[in-house]
Design a protein that fits this description.
single chain; alpha/beta; binds uridine-5'-diphosphate; globular
Length: 235
């Protein structure tokens, strides 16, 4: 089986218990999970958020920093996380390439879809950083965009929960996980795990979004192999 997927990690996923910065043990865990995919001939693209360092909306909240500038700061944060992820993957013996939507040649390749595709064909993991390169977007939208551009079979959003629930599972004990949910229903309910722009883009391009628990070891591989018990699929 030769499959191409894009996995999205939030910036917060990289932070340790204090919710800030980069915990190298978590990076190492993620790199292991990705290695399992590569070892099974799966071509992997990665998008990482920047919320562990800075989020545009929060940084611009009191008006001192303009939203557009705050968003650029957020995009830069994703590059920091991308550099760290590239290191963690290489530390595991994988071949990885960091691309960025905002040019910074000393640090990463510029995003060029044909180049990304070539890397993927060669078994290299490609990390897409700096989001879409535009303010007012999120890395969830960037992940949907990149997944579509590289023609990924699915976008896996790696989270701390097993999927999409009928109500907040952190608040309600009787929350029920939904195995599948249509794009329209996800949009109507404004599901918390994915923003509407990303869902609308996925809908237009018929890209399945799999919301999965990243802390369940081996879950990413299981999902790609067809075991959907620890995830929800928006399709
Ligand atoms: N961002 C942006 N355009 C993009 C992607 C991200 O302006 O295409 C900025 C935005 O300020 C966002 C920050 O980068 O808050 C970090 O990304 P995000 O909040 O999506 O990270 P996550 O929540 O996944 O950690």
């Amino acid at each position: 089986m030769n499959k191409r997927v894009l996995v999205k990690f939030s910036g917060e996923a990289l932070a340790g218990a204090d919710g800030y910065g980069i915990d190298t043990q978590i990076l190492d865990y993620i790199a292991n999970e990705i290695k399992e995919l590569v070892n099974n001939n799966i071509e992997v693209g990665i998008v990482i958020g920047g919320g562990n360092i800075i989020r545009g909306v929060t940084a611009a909240a009191d008006g001192v920093i303009k939203r557009t500038s705050a968003d650029y700061m957020g995009m830069l944060a994703t590059v920091i996380n991308g550099v760290a992820m590239q290191e963690a993957l290489e530390h595991k013996g994988l071949s990885a390439r960091l691309q960025t939507a905002i040019k910074m040649e000393q640090i990463a390749e510029p995003f060029i879809v044909r180049k990304a595709q070539r890397h993927l064909e060669k078994g290299r993991v490609v990390i897409f950083s700096a989001g879409t390169g535009n303010p007012y977007f999120t890395t969830d939208t960037a992940a949907t965009l990149r997944a579509t551009e590289i023609d990924a079979a699915m976008l896996i959003k790696a989270t701390k929960v097993d999927g999409v629930y009928d109500k907040d599972p952190m608040k309600y004990e009787d929350a029920v996980k939904l195995d599948t949910i249509t794009y329209d229903k996800a949009l109507e309910d404004h599901i918390k795990v994915m923003d509407d722009t990303a869902i609308a883009l996925a809908k237009d391009n018929k890209l399945p979004i799999v919301v999965a628990n990243m802390n369940e070891k081996g879950n990413l591989l299981k999902i790609i192999q067809g075991d959907y018990s620890k995830c929800s699929i928006v399709k």
